[in-house]
Design goal:
Layout: E1 2-8, E2 26-27, E3 30-31, H1 32-42, E4 48-53, H2 58-65, E5 73-78, H3 83-92, E6 98-103, H4 113-124, E7 129-135, E8 140-143, E9 149-153, E10 159-161, E11 165-168, H5 169-182, H6 190-196, E12 202-205, H7 216-231
Parallel strand pairs: 1-4, 1-6, 4-5, 7-12
Antiparallel strand pairs: 2-3, 6-11, 7-10, 7-11, 8-9
């Protein structure tokens, strides 16, 4: 049995400003999506990649990502209007011999391969769902509707979730099927969807390099990470 990675890449990413869909914004001369696909394809544990592309841009996305996928089996499908729809559509395209499914944000282009492999390994070891995460370092305030602080949250047990999130295929497919039947249409996090239906979610250590490119300043940070890797001789 094989492991597949789904990359929902049909979102607009409006916080990055006007222009291309977020996954197609450039980082060091290549789309964020291409960097994410390269990271997944270079991981030892990923055998198949399914990209959910913006409607009408399937051929363009295929041209952009196939050169960086190496020998990894790669398919491009049409994404939906929401992340949940895109993942559901990609699930339908999975080969029959896939039993582990990773879902990875195209906007996390610099995730290290050892994190990808650790997520896959945890699922293969019996976990229903696995999320890489890092400790929350900022002080977190809970406020009321008027902006008054109600409490300071103990951050010692808080974690910031990253991707790829990993799942036993049967668990993720069941969660998406149940969500469709119940009219849940806009889940922004697949682990949260699985959790909603009562399945346990395991957290493992993530990486500071697994941050999400959401704002223009994040592109600057990503450029700095790439520069650090180049100076260290790491792609």
């Amino acid at each position: 049995m094989r492991a597949a990675a789904i990359v929902p890449a049909a979102g607009r990413g409006e916080r990055l400003g006007p222009g291309e869909p977020k996954a197609l914004r450039e980082l060091a001369g290549q789309p964020l999506l291409a960097h994410a696909i390269r990271a997944l394809s270079e991981a030892r544990s990923v055998d198949v990649i399914i990209v959910a592309a913006p409607s009408g841009q399937e051929a363009r996305v295929s041209t952009l990502v196939h050169p960086v996928a190496g020998e990894t089996e790669l398919h491009v499908v049409t994404g939906g209007h929401t992340r949940q729809q895109s993942v559901s559509l990609a699930l339908r395209a999975l080969p029959d011999d896939v039993d582990v499914v990773l879902v990875h944000d195209a906007a996390r282009p610099l995730v290290p391969g050892d994190v990808i492999d650790a997520v896959t390994s945890a699922v293969r070891s019996g976990a229903d769902a696995v999320v890489p995460a890092v400790p929350v370092t900022d002080t977190i305030k809970q406020v009321d509707t008027a902006g008054r602080v109600e409490s300071t949250v103990d951050r010692s047990q808080l974690r910031a979730a990253q991707t790829p999130q990993g799942f036993a295929r049967i668990v993720l497919e069941s969660a998406h099927r149940d969500a469709a039947e119940q009219g849940l249409e806009d889940a922004s996090d697949d682990a949260g969807l699985v959790e909603h239906f009562g399945r346990p979610v395991m957290v493992i250590p993530g990486s500071e390099d697994g941050f999400k490119v959401t704002r223009p300043i994040d592109l600057v940070l990503a450029e700095a990470v790439l520069a650090r890797r180049r100076s260290a001789g790491v792609h």
